[in-house]
Amino acid sequence: MFVQTSKTTINGKTYACKTVRESYRTAKGPRSRLVCNISKLPDHVQSGIEFLLKKPGGSFVSSDSLGLCDALGFGGIAVLHDAWNRFGLDRILSGVDDAADRGRLKAMVFARLLFPGSKLSLRTTSADSALAASCGLSQADLDEDRLYKAMDCLSGNWVGVEKGLYSEAFPSGATLVLYDLTSSYFEGAKNKKLAAYGYSRDHRDDRMQLILALATGADGVPIHMEVLKGNRADNRTLLPLLASLKRRFGIKRAVFAFDGGMSSAINLEQMRSDELDYVTRLSSSTLKALARNLPEDNQPELWDRDSLVEFEEDGKRYVVAGSEYRQQRDRERREARIAKGRFGLEAFNRVNRKKVDVQKLSAQVGCMLARAKALKYFDYHIEADGTATWSEKAEVVETEQRFDGWYLLTTTLARPDAPKETVFAHYRNLLDVEDAFRETKSYLEMRPIYHQKDDRVRNHIRICFLAYWISARLRNAWQEKGERREVPLVLRELQQIKVGRLRMNEKPLKVVLTDIPGKLYAILEKLGLLPLFQRAPTWAS
């Protein structure tokens, strides 16, 4: 027997009729006859009859006896688990002998992307997720001491790990290497060789810090990260990094793009002697000096800021780039500094002084203007009564206005191999490195650093490096499919999809996934991730 549904439309309204029919055979073939009409029965009774006719021998249970237990966050972890396997990270970490330690490293990497925090808090913050199961661990395996033991395993294996990551991400080798620096500060920095006071890019001059030197490929996938002492000068970081890239990864013929802080004359001369191509930015003072040697019909005030300007001087190739936005930014920055300097001078004159030391007060005013980055805009004099008189240097402002919005690039690339547009594009790719720093500091919460041992500081940063390596690979794939948001944000949103055990009368039946909300379904469909959510994976059970 079976349930047959027939529909009839009368005056625009559709009526459904459900009947139970029985099949039988005749000499002319199979036929069916009406058994009963169940249209007027409640919907749940109709569904029950249909179920029993399809599955003879089936039985019903009370809905009160069914329930979902141990519902754990699953969506983001499922995506990361799939990426981990596709990128061969178990193979890359095979130098870590203990499978449980490899699982803990995997858990710490996933945690950086999903719920960043301390190693101590990991077991608590991941308790409502499938993190431990995805790493082949129990929740008890995520205690702090075991996590530190696993993290220590990176110290003797990191070179091999980096080589494996490079081979996986750049099978044909990197042809463009982007290089930049950032800093990260410590809390409680005592007896650390890496910790030192220096120029803080986090605007935390009150904290000791370390320097991070990061090299990435053209697509933003990281290649190598160096952890350096916090007071290391920018221009002293480039040549050691180039030596590491050459020795560790065999990168000999590539274009290196880096910012102006590393482009000292010694560095550039050494790269030219080593036949290494580069694209870098030079200082504004260098641009002004070169402009004095240009012909009158090729001066900055005649250039179009929407176009690139190219020229050669002493056998070196230069490209000048600019924009209206940078011109406005430079003007506003200068006006703000002058206003701050003027305000400081006026505040200086409002102070009543009993004793006047002209030399000391003059140094005080100079330091105040230097802190405001306005010293070059003012001529000042301390009078006998301790007040300051000053005048603004209109000629300095006028000279700077000529160069507002412009910056100077230099390269060893020949014109036939790289037109000026290509040179500019190589330099603009440094924004990918800045994105890497922003993601590791903000979404992965690499800072501040609380670890007390230098090796663990390095390994903490290496775990963040692994997390960003996965994020960058996923980002490149997802951007091709139209997803522009940061990868950690998407993964955390997908954690709303849960996995749990279906139970009946307190006895577990099977592992099931919760229904996927419409918004998340659209994301999974766009990114081609729906196959991961067709059924609960075996590791989730």
Class based on secondary structure composition and strand pairing: alpha+beta
- Read across the widest sheet, the strand sequence of neighbours is 7-6-5-8-9-14-11-10
Low-confidence runs of at least 5 consecutive residues: none
Distance between the termini: 37 Å
Radius of gyration: 33 Å
Q: How large a portion of the residues is in β-strands, by DSSP E?
A: 15-25%
What's the pLDDT, averaged over the residues? 88
Please give the count of helices: 19
Residue share in helix: 40-55%
- Biggest beta-sheet profile: 8 strands, mixed
Q: Say how many strands there are.
A: 16
User: Overall 3D geometry?
Assistant: elongated
Descriptive account of the structure:
- Strand 8, helix 10 and strand 9 form a beta-alpha-beta unit.
- The protein has helices spanning 43-54, 75-86, 89-92, 99-114, 119-125, 131-134, 144-152, 158-169, 238-249, 265-273, 284-291, 324-349, 358-371, 394-402, 420-428, 430-441, 454-479, 487-494, 518-527, and strands at residues 2-10, 13-26, 29-37, 66-73, 176-185, 209-216, 222-229, 255-258, 277-282, 309-313, 316-322, 378-382, 388-392, 406-411, 498-504, 507-513.
- The strands form four sheets. The chain has an eight-stranded mixed β-sheet with strand order 7-6-5-8-9-14-11-10, with helices on both faces. A three-stranded antiparallel β-sheet has the order 1-2-3.
- 40% of the residues lie in helices and 22% in strands.
- The protein is built from 19 helices and 16 strands.
- It is α+β, with helices and mostly antiparallel strands and 541 residues long.
- It is elongated, with a radius of gyration of 33 Å.
